[in-house]
Amino acid sequence: xxxxxxxxxxxxxxxxxxxxxxxxxxxxxxxxxxxxxxxxxxxxxxxxxxxxxxxxxxxxxxxxxxxxxxxxxxxxxxxxxxxxxxxxxxxxxxxxxxxxxxxxxxxxxxxxxxxxxxxxxxxxxxxxxxxxxxxxxxxxxxxxxxxxxxxxxxxxxxxxxxxxxxxxxxxxxxxxxxxxxxxxxxxxxxxxx
Length: 193
Description:
By secondary structure, this protein is an alpha/beta fold.
């Protein structure tokens, strides 16, 4: 029997009830329907006042340090950012600048973004994928991009986005299951040694 996966989502949205956070929650829910997991959402808009002035990790308060550790220890990451001037938000990048460069090696990451129109949809492949390649993470095969029209009352609404989200999670399952088995095998090997 495998332990539940620690699924951590990072929303780059700056406002409470952001579309990025809503998309993160939807994707974590879909993963939870397929695999046992403990979900945790990091909302950068909530930690922004403590994060914005720091240049070194040791300058951060304990509340932000806990969120960084949660990301570094995640079995699976879901990241979603609003598109701002053709890229992820500066706060999103600033947060990941504090993550240890070796902490995400081989971590499966489901990439997502929200924007005002379809013209920003390439942000997933041109901005997010290279960022997490630096960390040597395993970006999952399909990213999820959503526009303002895909939400109703702050929740994922459009059938196209629902289908794309489900497909992204479905295609990620082999890697997520591999992560579960790898963890079990590593713990078994350590116990035998």
